[in-house]
Amino acid sequence: MFANTFKITTRFAIAMSLTGLAGCASDGGLGEAAVVGAMLLPMPAGVDSSVMTAAIGVAATAYVASSLADTGSPTVSPAPVAMAAPQAQPPVNLQKLVTRETPDRYRSKSCGYIETALSEVPMYQASAEPLMKQVASARKEAASQVWLEKGCQASNLPRGKVGMSIDTVDPQRAMALSLPPAGVVVLAIVPGGGAQQAGMLSEDVVVAVDNQPIADSIDFRLAVAKAEIGAKVNLKVWRASAFRIVPVVVSAGGTPIPVVSQSAVPAGGLYCHALLATQHTYGATTSPVKLIPGVADAGMQASLMSYIAKVKQEQPNVWGNFNFKPGLCSPGAVVCMAEAKGPSGKTQNAFEFCHPTQAKADAELSQMHQGDPQAVTVDWP
């Protein structure tokens, strides 16, 4: 019955997939893409198009996603389709795939996690869908920035795979159905791979690899990538309302990590923040941290002047005419200062501070806000 349902409802499933947002992944190289991204990607030669484009409903409509075969695999074994009523699915905000790709997404993550996330960028770039290319650009910029901030180095992991397509668990839907709220759900099994040989099934939910909890598909791919080729990883699997441990053999494969070079940060670029303050008073005006290209080579006077102009535009009749201190804002300097007499006659100062990493600039800005809790944020022009 499930096989017939799969054939009959394929087109309907594709349309339905646009009513849910999920992260589809294959441990062989497909990343945390939206369902629409997986459907629009070029198909590897020899893969059954009905398998590649069908949306798969998993665990009684807990998940809606597209499955995609491992790179080089001729086919995958799809999960049965369990269709949900259209009104039961939340609306999709596909732009969220782009907007979520910010440095903050990666700052709490390990270098290995960032490395694995960056390995998925070529998959997005290869898509014919413009939105997926935007995801690629946003992720490359955001993850590369944090990679450089942390001083990460390529780990040269074994890059194994176990042969199954996975999707990050949707916590809200999972909890509503009494399923594990975190981990990855198995969408499809690659014939002949370690997962099939170990008895893994579509709709299994993997919550840990070798006792390490799995939060999303990138976590899963990283855990498998760390394992030696030919070794077994113990997957903690939720199936039929119970947990079990499934040992799975890791085979060779995976996507090489793209090199993250210093070109990810513009030449001479530094992370800067600026502020204007009236001496002996609270309520300074501060900027967010901003990556300013070329500031180390050209000096900070131009960028601080532009920030002063922006603040005076937003706060008219508050600030005086600033004069810059000779030599303080020269190329190679990490601080720039200007001074003015305010309308009240009090001395006012404008500062810009720059650092090679955003983490250091953020820490300095945080300390400044602690010293002046009444500070107001005015963004850069």
* Percent of residues in β-strands: 15-25%
Segments where pLDDT lies below 50 for 5+ residues? 1-24, 28-92
Global morphology? elongated
Which range best describes the helical content: under 10%, 10-25%, 25-40%, 40-55%, 55-70% or over 70%? 25-40%
How many separate domains make up the residues? 2
Whole-number radius of gyration? 26 Å
Count of β-strands:
19
Structural class estimated from helices and strands: alpha+beta
User: Sheet bearing the most strands, described?
Assistant: 8 strands, antiparallel
**Spatial gap, N to C terminus:** 61 Å
Q: For this structure, what is the CATH homologous superfamily of the largest domain?
A: PDZ domain
Write down the CATH class of the largest domain.
Mainly Beta
- The CATH topology name of the largest domain reads Pdz3 Domain
SS summary, helix count: 15
**Would you identify the CATH architecture of the largest domain?**
Roll
Quote the average pLDDT. Answer: 73
Summarize this entry quickly.
This protein has 381 residues and is α+β, with helices and mostly antiparallel strands. The chain has two domains: 251 residues, Pdz3 Domain (Roll); 113 residues, no CATH class.
How does this model look, in words?
Helix 7 packs antiparallel against helix 9 (130-150) and helix 7 packs across helix 12 (217-226). A hairpin with a 2-residue loop joins strand 8 (205-209) and strand 9. The chain has 381 residues and is an alpha+beta fold. The chain has two domains: 2-252, Pdz3 Domain (Roll); 265-377, no CATH class. It has 15 helices and 19 strands. Strands 1, 4, 6, 7, 8, 9, 10 and 11 form an eight-stranded antiparallel β-sheet that branches. Strands 13, 14, 15, 16, 17, 18 and 19 form a seven-stranded mixed β-sheet that branches. It has a two-stranded antiparallel sheet with strand order 2-3.
